[in-house]
Design brief:
about 100 residues; mainly alpha; elongated
Length: about 100
């Protein structure tokens, strides 16, 4: 039964990796990477249960925390870069509307 669960998790990891590579937007890719990290935590937990090593669960929890913080950091970076681009576009439009562009 654990083997079936591990295979199912590996299949979903492959699908998430495919989505991360093909995703049309940045948010699709980030979501796919987050899903891949979550499935990795599940796979580590299954391995811990199969081998009878509960100390692997601590590793799984640490990996889950790192995954969560990493996804938040990437999303913050993407949001800030989009806001920066929006401000640049608004400033360029304002300069062209007032006629004080570089001529």
């Amino acid at each position: 039964m654990l083997l079936v669960a591990a295979i199912a998790i590996l299949v979903t990891m492959a699908l998430a990796l495919t989505r991360a590579l093909m995703g049309p937007t940045v948010y699709d890719r980030v979501l796919a990477v987050n899903m891949f990290g979550t499935k990795t935590v599940l796979l580590i937990a299954i391995m811990a249960f199969a081998m009878g090593r509960t100390d692997f669960l601590d590793l799984a929890l640490a990996y889950a925390l790192i995954n969560f913080i990493g996804v938040l950091a990437v999303l913050w970076f993407v949001q800030e870069s989009q806001l920066r681009e929006q401000r640049r576009a608004e400033a360029a439009a304002e300069r062209s509307a007032t006629g004080s562009g570089d001529e």
